[in-house]
Structure formats: structure tokens, C-alpha cells
UniProtKB/TrEMBL annotation:
Gene3D superfamilies: Transthyretin/hydroxyisourate hydrolase domain
PANTHER family, alphabetized: 5-HYDROXYISOURATE HYDROLASE, URICASE AND TRANSTHYRETIN-RELATED
EC number from the UniProt entry: 3.5.2.17
GO MF: hydroxyisourate hydrolase activity
Protein name: 5-hydroxyisourate hydrolase
Keywords attached to this entry: Hydrolase, Purine metabolism
Domain Transthyretin/hydroxyisourate hydrolase: 6-114
Family: Belongs to the transthyretin family. 5-hydroxyisourate hydrolase subfamily.
Subunit text: Homotetramer.
InterPro entries found in the cross-reference section: Hydroxyisourate_hydrolase, Thyroxine_BS, Transthyretin/HIU_hydrolase, Transthyretin/HIU_hydrolase_d, Transthyretin/HIU_hydrolase_sf
Length: 115
């Protein structure tokens, strides 16, 4: 059985840099919504540790909440209209490592299942 885990990173596509200093919350949505963690991205736009390790991983529906508007406002730029970007993902056991990158600007974002 492949161990499962969850990680993320954020790229500021408006400035062509990692999004250092962005707040991210991880929520487990089942059976009732509960915030599991809040972290800030490091200089590489990554979290210092995985959001879920193989030891803390549980299958289910999760939300990653990225504070995109606050990040751009703190940089002295236009916070745009995104505010908090929420990505809702379903994680299953034995599917290996889940990596959810966010590429964002004040006006748009995209994501994919990374490796």
C-alpha cells in the first residue's frame, strides 16, 4: 500500500516569484468542517512541512484555503478580487503523495495535482 500525504506550494505568477508569506489553512470537511492547521509559506512558496503526513493522513474531503488577496495587499500591490482561494479535494487511501500547487495573481489562479 502506498503511503499517502498532502503538500502544497504557491507561485506568484504576477511577479514571477514564489509566494513567500502566504497564509494557508487546511480544513477537513467530513463529518463536519474542522480547521486542522494554519501555516505560512516560506521563501520558496512552500510549507515547512507537509500539510498531512503519512501518520496524520485520513481519507476524505479537504479544503485548502489560500489567502491570496491578503498576500498581494501585504506586498503593497492590488489585492485584486480573489480574496481567499478555496480548493476542495477528495483524498483517498493508498494513492501516494498528493501535491496541490497554486499559481496565482491578484486576478486569476490555477491548480493541478502535482507530484
Amino acid at each position: 500500500m502506498k503511503p499517502s500525504a498532502l503538500s502544497t506550494h504557491v507561485l506568484d505568477t504576477a511577479n514571477g516569484i514564489p509566494a513567500a508569506g502566504m497564509a494557508i489553512e487546511l480544513w477537513r470537511m467530513e463529518p463536519e468542517p474542522a480547521r486542522l492547521s494554519r501555516t505560512i509559506t516560506n521563501a520558496d512558496g512552500r510549507t515547512d512541512s507537509p500539510l498531512l503526513t503519512p501518520e496524520t493522513f485520513a481519507p476524505g474531503r479537504y479544503e485548502l484555503r489560500f489567502e491570496v488577496g491578503a498576500y498581494f495587499a501585504a506586498r503593497g500591490g492590488d489585492p485584486g478580487y480573489l480574496g481567499t482561494v478555496t480548493i476542495n479535494v477528495g483524498l483517498r487511501e493508498a494513492q501516494g503523495h498528493y501535491h496541490v500547487p497554486l499559481l496565482c495573481s491578484p486576478w486569476s489562479y490555477s491548480t493541478y495535482r502535482g507530484s
